[in-house]
Amino acid sequence: MWCSIIAVFAFSATILVHPSTAFTVVSTTSKSDGSNELDQLASKIEQIEHNIQTIQKVSENQNHASVKSRFPKNCKEIQTNGNTISGVYTVQPEFAPKPFLVLCNMDSHGGGWTYFMNRFNGNQDFFRRWNDYKTGFGNLNDEFWLGLDYLHFLTGYEVNELLIELEDWDSKKVYARYDAFSVGNEGEGYIMRILGNYSGTAGESLSYHGGMKFTTTDRDNDLWRDGNCAVYRSAGWWYNNCVGSHLTGKYIKEKSSADAYTVMFWNTLRGAYNIKVAKMMVKPK
User: Is the predicted pLDDT of residue 10 greater than 50, yes or no?
Assistant: First the structure.
């Protein structure tokens, strides 16, 4: 075997590899003498083996990328691909490490919306700590909070629109739509870093929270100097000092202004009166 290998290296040779791989190209030239020739040859063979292993890793990564691309990035892409029925689907945004399930709204305002919050019966308690809001809670077939990590993967790398649908206890249905919306990552406190122009019928009650980090009972990122808004208002939210809207507040199963601003409310919709239904959704512009 060594004889055959030496025979190969009796000629000038170059091993070419994919330009994206970060390893050395081996080039050899024959020698007529020298006691270290076999040592040099062994070293070059070792480098070749290393290059082969690197190529294999690149191939594995490319295969992984092709598997990853099998999933649509969001509900808008699902709709574009021809699925127009609202329901639960699997998505994987470009920078998400793994796929996850989402609820898609294919009917409202052109469809293609990905829910990140759905409330309509009070089955879920939203008085929760940071990790719950980070990873999500509830049931996609019932009430839920998708999770701030997932919301960041959906909105953090491309600007989305935000749609909020509300219904009060007099069965009045309204909506608020913002033409740009983006949430940062955990290191940024899941800051609402972009909130665009409002349109709709609900009235504008979210801009007070634009630019704010998310606050929970165990992670105080608000601007209220006298305490923690999440403790005082009984839920996590993008508090300022403290609220202009509060869609994660207490769910009261009747028309009431009890508990004032701890309830689920939208300030321009009957002030502090609690809301019956609140849905928050995003889709790429």
Answer: no
Distance of alpha carbon 200 from alpha carbon 185, whole angstroms: 28
Contact 194, 159 (CB under 8 A): yes
Q: Around 76, how many Cα atoms within 13 Å sit in the side-chain half-sphere?
A: 14
Look at residues 188, 106, 198 and name the one whose alpha carbon lies nearest to residue 148. Answer: 188
Closest by CA to 210, choosing from 180, 230, 231, 186, is 180
The span from the CA of 28 to the CA of 235, in Å, is: 68
Q: Are 167 and 178 in contact (CB under 8 A)?
A: no
Q: What is the pLDDT of residues 113-162, one digit of tens each?
A: 999 999 999 999 999 999 999 999 999 999 999 999 999 999 999 999 99
The Cα 78–Cα 16 span in angstroms is 41
This prediction has a pTM of: 0.76
Distance CA 187, CA 205 (A): 26
Q: Identify whether the C-beta of residue 160 lies closer than 8 Å to the C-beta of residue 154.
A: yes
Structure tokens at 179: 């033409």
Cα(31)–Cα(3) distance, rounded to whole angstroms? 15
